[in-house]
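User:
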Amino acid sequence: MRRMTGNARLTVFGAAGLAALFIVGLAGLASLPATAQSERRLPASQAQIELSFAPVVKQVAPAVVNIYTRRVVQVRQSPLMNDPLFRRFFGNKSPFGMPRQRVLGSLGSGVIVSSEGIVVTNNHVIDKADSIRVVLPDRREFEAEVMFADPRTDLAILRLNTKGESLPFLRLRDSDEVEVGDLVLAIGNPFGIGQTVTSGIISATARTQAGISDYQFFLQTDAAINPGNSGGALVAMDGRLIGINTALFSRSGESNGIGFAIPSNMVNAVLKAALSDGMLVRHWFGARGRVVDVDVAESLGLQRPGGVVIEEIYAGGPADYAGIRPGDVILKVNGREVLDPAGLEFRLATVKDRQNVELTIFGHGAQRLIAVELVELPETPARNITVLDGRHPFQGVTVANLSPRFADELGLDPMSRGVVVTKVDRRSPAGRMRFVRPGDVITLLNGTRVELVAELNSALEVPATDYFYRLRRAGRTIECGIRGQRSFFCR
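Assistant: Predicted structure:
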C-alpha cells in the first residue's frame, strides 16, 4: 500500500469528483465555438475507443526482416605482434602462436520491397560481411547476396535466394507527401530481442544537420528507434514505406525520441540503380553555395533567411549553361523549398526527370523560374594517370587530372580543379619525406598555376633547387616548400 501513496490524492478524489469534472467538462465543451467542437470530440462509440494500429501492423510486419551478418577477422594471440620492431625479427611467425581467426557477428533489420526477394537495408548493417542471413517473421531463413551498396547514402540492396518462393513486400510512398505530425510506425529488431513495433509522429521532414551520411536529408520521428532498428521500416498509416530507419540521436545509446530515417525517395533512386545497371547516377548541377542566414538575407533584399546563395559556378556546367550566376539564390527545386546546401543536394539527387528541373531563383530583387538540364558527372578532362619521372623531388609520385567524376569517385569536391595525387612510391623522395599524400590536389608549383598533369610536368622540367607548391588537403589550402630535396615545410 505504501507504493500507492503518490496516487492517494487521485484515489480519494473518487467517482463523485470525476463525475463533477465530467459534467463541467461537457458544459465547457458545449460553450466552445462550433469549429473547436468539430476538431476535438469525445469517442462516440465503443468501436472508436478500441481503435488500433493492429490492421496496419498485420499488413506490413511480414515484410520487415532480421539481418544477421558474419565476418571473419585475423587476431594475433600476443599484442607484441603489433610492434613493428618485434615483427622485424619474427615476421609473421610469432613464438606465441600463429594468428587465429575470430568470427564477428552483427544484427540489423531490412525491408522486402519485391516479392522476388529484394531487400533494402543500411549499408552499415552489411558492411564488410562475409555472409548474410535474412530471417522473416514467420521464421523462414534465406541466404542473401549484396546487389548494390552505397556508403554515401548508407543504403544497400540485397537479393534473397528464395528458390521461387513469393515473399510479402512493402510498396514505397512518395516521401515528399509526408507532413510533420503524420502518424508513423517504426518496425525492426532492437537489441536483437525480436521484431518490435513502435509508434510516433513525423517530427521533421527535412533534417539536414544529423551528420550521418553524405546526403544530409532525413525524416525525423519520435517513434522509438534503438540499436538493431537500423535498416528497418518507417511506414505511414496506409501501410506504405516512407523511410529506412538509420540512426538515433542519443548520448546514452538508447532512444530519446529523436530518430532519423532515410526518405523513401532516396531509397527509390538507389533501388532503381541496383535493378538496372548497378550504377547510381549522380545528378550534377555544377555550382556551389552556402546557406542564406539573416545577414545574407538582409543584404540581398530577401524577406527571410532560407535558400542557397551561389558562390561558385563550374565553367561549362549545367548551372553555367542555364544562366545562373554568383549571387543568385536558389529558393526551390521543382516547387519544393530548399533551406540549405544539403537540402539542395538531396532535391537534385532525387529528381525523377533530370531533364526538367525547375529552379526558383531570386536575383536582382526579383524571383524567376529557370529550367536546368542536369547531367551525369563529366569525365573532362581525361584522367591521364601518370607516374612523374625526372631529377626532382616529385619523382615516383603518381598523379592524374581531376574531373568532376574522378573527384566524386575519390570522395573529393566535384568542383575541384587541379592535379590529384593518387599514389606515392614508398622508396621515392616523396615517400620518405611525406611532403605529399594520396588525395592531395596540387594547384600551384613554383609560381605556375597547375590544372593539368601536362602543366605540372612542364613546371617540373624547369631546373630548380627549391620547390614551392600549393595544395588542397582535407578541405584546407596548404602552402609548402622543399629545400634541396632534404627538408620541407608547410604552413
